[in-house]
Amino acid sequence: MAKRAEAKKSASRGSLLDAARKHQDALQAQGLSASVLERYASALAGVENQGKGPNVAAQTLMKDITNEVGEFQAAMRKEFPGNAQFQAFFKSGEPMPADARGLLELGRVVAAEAPNFSSNLIRYAINAATVKHLSFLCDQLEKEIGGADPKKDVASLEEQIRDVARRAFEGKPELAEF
To answer: In which region does residue 119 sit, left (phi positive, over 0), alpha (psi from -120 to 50) or beta (all else)?
Structure first.
């Protein structure tokens, strides 16, 4: 019973995407960004693939992020061996997450905190370019897995599309497609 409801919901989402693409010009005239439909399609794919595990491209990105984050963590352990608070910024004492979303979250935290420690990390060849590369890898992984939280993204983007459709097609039969 739950599988049927999920299949119906998925079909409904697909038809919303189809309707939005069909009427994209009218929706954009009402202020809908073209990137909303791309993000919605990506989030739908992320929800659909959540139980399947990461694809080959995502697995490669995960390995790269694991290596980059591992370098940051090792540098923090060497630079601040007795300071648990500094190591906590990079989660140096914790095991590396095995799932894509957990690794993405850790990569984002490390990329955000690394500039605060740049003077201490430069001797380990960790500089602004390294941080930028880690951020780029995280962006790519997020795109591959359909976003950081695709279920939340899908709901938010659906609401955004339907609101614009209401304004664009108020009183018109096209509104029924949304």
So the answer is: alpha
Q: Is the pLDDT of residue 5 over 50?
A: no
| DSSP code string of 121-152 | HGGGT--HHHHHHHHHHHHHHHHHTT-SSHHH
Query: Which phi and psi angles does 23 have, rounded to 5°?
Result: -110, 30
> Rounded to 10 degrees, what is the CA torsion of 68, 107, 156, 22?
0
pTM above 0.85, yes or no: no
Nearest in space to 64 (alpha carbons), one of 86, 93, 96, 17: 96
Cα dist from 63 to 28, 54, 104, 107, whole Å: 39, 12, 11, 12
Q: Tell me if residue 64 falls in helix, strand or coil.
A: helix
Q: Which residue do the tokens 């740049």 mark? A: 118
Residue 90 reports pLDDT greater than 90: no
Q: Which amino acid is at 106?
A: L
